[in-house]
Amino acid sequence: MGNRKSKVGEKLIIVVDIVSIIGSFILSVAVQYNRIGTNDLTSLYVSTVFIMLLSHMVSYATGMNRKQVFKRGFTEEGFAIVKEQVKLMAILVTYLYLTKQGESYSRLFVVIFFLLNYLITYVLRSYLKVFMFACYKRSTSSNKVLLITTSDRAEDVIHRIRAEREWAILISDMAIIDKDMVGECIEGITVLGSKSNLMEIARLNVLDEVFISLPQQCNFNLNEAIYEFEKMGVVVHIGIEINPMFHFKNKYLENFAGYQVITFSTGIFDARQELLKRVLDFAGGIIGVVATAIITLLLAPIIKLDSKGPVFFSQVRVGRNGRKFKIYKFRSMYENAEEMKKDLLDKNDIQGFMFKMKDDPRITKVGKFIRKTSLDEFPQFLNVLKGDMSLVGTRPPTLDEFEKYEVRHKRRLSLRPGLTGLWQVSGRSDIQDFEEVVKLDLEYIDNWSIGLDIKLILKTICVVVLKKGGR
């Protein structure tokens, strides 16, 4: 609602911030040098202000939410501007370091600039918000909205809409459809309509949009109402009731094969995030495959001499959302390891649907070394290049482990499995409870970011170098 008008406010915020930076610069030069000159020193400062303006615009273009400015209170706005100033200062320090201009700068000038920029930004943003709210409240420019709801939820709906602080929206009229409350006042809004005279008040009053918030079981012909509003040329918004039992992280409307649907997801990454992760995987996969080729030249004869069998071991594992694929490793066990496993199940150190045991007799002498150093995992870089796996993710279960999964366990497979992950760097084989593994995997899925992947890759390198937890 009021989307086009809200965008005007967002653009004004950009203008305000640009004016703040330029104004702060001019005042800082005037305070520091008692004049506005065109000497070399002033030119130096102009170039850095240009860099800050450019970085500010880039931050807006790449995700800074200008809508939040209108939703924040005055105290919250103050803290938000402090964060922005810290980012600007970090950019300035980086720029000065890279261009080796730090010695030419007055520290006092920098302090004055950021203090003035904070004060001017805060004052201008605050004034703009007060002005926009007051202006649209008094004028005919705000979108006049008719709220259609029931008596038991009217107060809550009004509170929620006002909490969003959408200055371009004004609930001008209200209709209560479950009882006759015409003439009564709820949260400062007079009830003008009921089910019987709804279309009459919509026809006679100033009305830009309609917001309908009704319970699922309600004696109201919604389709007929929408049809009538459509004939009037009025925009209609329908509040969608979501069962409070659902705890999906993401809920949104989208087009699915020609159908308008509500999508529920515990964690969906957009195309840009998916691409970034795949680029990281591809780059790491190439480096890893080259390293694997070199390691193979060294390990292959040792593995062959140590025990009978192939150099590489392959096994069917379960990947993203149940997809099956062949995983590759350097062989670290005897050829009859799977048959031996049946007799060792009662010695499992892990509680749950994974098998690990101390002093596993199936592991060869060379196998103990390559497992401890994680060298056995290197052939999986080929799986990463193929797209079966990712550098970072959850570990893929074997078929027999997967078949024992409960429904809730499958969510740990909602991403591509990885060479490493949160639970591996949190203890690797030292963790002896499968539920703890699941908990850490879900924590990774729910908080995924490229930054987290890079952090876990670096932690994995430390864990492997220190030979911590490998078995």
Automatic annotation (TrEMBL):
GO molecular function: phosphotransferase activity, for other substituted phosphate groups
Superkingdom of source: Bacteria
Alphabetical list of InterPro entries matching this protein: Bact_transf, EPS_sugar_tfrase
GO cellular component term of the entry, any: membrane
Annotated localization: Membrane
TM ranges: none
Membrane topology category: Multi-pass membrane protein
The entry's keywords: Membrane, Transferase, Transmembrane, Transmembrane helix
Family the entry assigns: Belongs to the bacterial sugar transferase family.
Name the record gives this protein: Galactosyl transferase CpsE
Species lineage: Bacteria, Bacillati, Bacillota, Clostridia, Lachnospirales
Gene for this chain: cpsE_2
